[in-house]
Amino acid sequence: MDLLDYIVRVNPDGTFGLRVELFVAKERPADPKAQFHKNTLPSLGLYAALKAVEWPQEVSWVEAPATNRMLQLTYTVSRDIPTLDALLSTIDATLAATVPGIDEAVAAHAARTPHWEGGHRFTQEQFDNMRQRAELRCADMLAGKFPDPAPRPRVYWSAQVELQSGATGIWNRYRDQSVIRPLFGQLANPSEFVRRQLEDARPDDVVVVISGTRQVLGVGILTGRFDYDAQDNLPFYCSVEWVLTQPVELKGNPFLVRSPWSRTTKWLEVRAAYARLTSQRAALARLADNEVGGTADDDDETGMIEDSVVAYDEDASVTPAYWWLNINPKFWKVDDFEVGQEQTWTTHNEKGNKRNVYAYFQQVRPGDLVIGYETTPTKRVKAILEITEAAHASEEVEVEDGLGTNSADPKSEIITLRVKEFVREELTLQQLQQMTELAQCEPLAAKMGSLYQLTPAEFTAIFTRAQRITAPTLPAYTLAEAEQDLFLTTDAIKHLQVALKRKKNLIVQGPPGVGKTYVARRLAWLQMKEQDNRRVQLVQFHQSYSYEDFIRGWRPTATGGFELANGVFVDFVRKAQHDQAHDYFFIIDEINRGNLSKIFGELLMLLEADKRSEQYALPLTYRKEGESAFYLPPNLYVIGTMNTADRSLALVDYALRRRFTFVDLVPLLGTKLVQHLVSQHIPAHLATEAIQRVEALNETIRKDKNLGDGFLIGHSYFCTPPNGEGPAGWWDAIIQHDIAPLLREYWFDDKERATKAIAALQVDVPGE
């Protein structure tokens, strides 16, 4: 049904929370047997009308992720209203701010939808009946009889402030400042789910600072509430009194699923680790003094652990189960979601039959962890998911039982999950099948089904490999290696680095054969400090390339229909958004061969370095239901290459030129090239003489008023070593098959000049 709820929550400490929820049914499904009340459909127009209202500034609706049959808008007014009088005044203000807009949307939708029977107000009789039922339920509260608020138990939080175990830079900074700043600026902007957790943190809560999967850097007590500092790249902060500042390591990998800020279920292990350090016991006792349930003997490590259970989170002793979920990307493309965003999953298929191994759906519990694997055509591990609700009947579907009452349709049973974190390496099916730890893994052997159980060892093996905790070390790439690979000077390489970092968008331009694409990839490696090609995407523009290929568009399917599919750029940007601790590089070869305004569309503005944040997010031309606006993250770099010799190419328009910095590459026909040729078994005489003759040819081209610097012969023509033909045959093949056709094209109106230039490149090789 279409519902409007003003929900009051009484907190354990006697304060109040208030939120407004709007639930709107989607269009009637194709199944004619589906049971819907006549007032519920059609309502998509109402949803659009609600979103179109110009709401007061204080009204901030949050759009829920797309679910099976309902659309939802939520406005959280406050979670911490101190008194009943304040609550009543807040409700009055909220009604004044929301009801006119809701009336406006209902009237607009009703005018466009003659047969719609929704949007009616309660009659006085209906309202009186509801009031009587509410008065019976809340008699004590209305009489002023409030139970004594239960003391809020101390909550234990974990904060990820370092990305790799052993790194201590950020921790040292904030330890000295007596503050905690979770890594939202570097990992990802916080979702609504994480924001709620920040709001739940209170003074006297304990925060455990973690690095990597097992290292604890320190422990402190919150002395305030979280605030926001827009001037810092880690904007969310809270004051802390640091109590334990000596790093310790726990056994195993207790912090496998890392989050910038979350409740921790590992406080017992953390406390036990510090209790074993004699130097830390006095400080540790300060944490025990404030715990609900009393303190422990400083000299009794076991007693300290047992006493702390009283103050520990109620789910702390529950070990999560581990699962694998096969996700059909036609119904849920995980990359389009954000960390913390929820999705529902039905326990019955489209035909109403129970899914394979239905018992697994009954066993999942909140807090269980799930490997999210996208099936054909993706066939990759995409994310770590977390169960937030066990199997339950969807509130969206009810059926009449013939007695005038409604009950939940048993076939509408669902589980709810949220995206816990995205993986760094999207493991393929082939990679998973090659892992010895997964030899008996149930989902890899099964032919049908969606939800499977994993053992702790199997989950750990997949997780540590996908997050590159135990992955093979990638080859390092340093400035010294770049100097060896490229014929550029050290200063030239550093200049390229500075240009890319300054503007985040770089175009490397030059004549044919100067190694533009080769340089672009190695520039990416150099900034990453490793040869990680998963974080480098190469495409080539051409005259037929379009917005639909690059960003998003409608694509034909095997069944003869069409689907809205992401282009290569959007998919790659999603990866960068989900892993903002690492840099990502998008390389566009021959960037000036495409119609750039047509290809980039509305994203042209987002390329600017100072607009790389959600603040400047824009809706895509082809939007998916429930999708948030699109933005480019600060860890994304775009490198283009441009050939300056092709007369058929259009000039880059000024709008794009302003957003890129341009660097020229020139032929490098010096000592480094000669040394390289000698190392490839080219005689020194031939290498030296050949390069000198090419330099002379380039001087002729440079002075030609119809050619110039953009048409010089580049050094990459000569970098391929002989392949059995001998040095003389190698040089003759380069002249006849590579350079001669190019020169004939250059001087197409002067064949004699081209012939002389080709002849001048011939070099006599002694003994051949």
UniProtKB/TrEMBL annotation:
Domain of life the protein comes from: Bacteria
AAA+ ATPase domain sequence ranges: 502-666
InterPro entries assigned: AAA+_ATPase, ATPase_dyneun-rel_AAA, EVE_domain, Methyl-DNA_Rec/Restrict_Enz, P-loop_NTPase, PUA-like_sf
Protein name, entry field: EVE domain-containing protein
Lineage of the species this protein comes from: Bacteria, Pseudomonadati, Bacteroidota, Cytophagia, Cytophagales
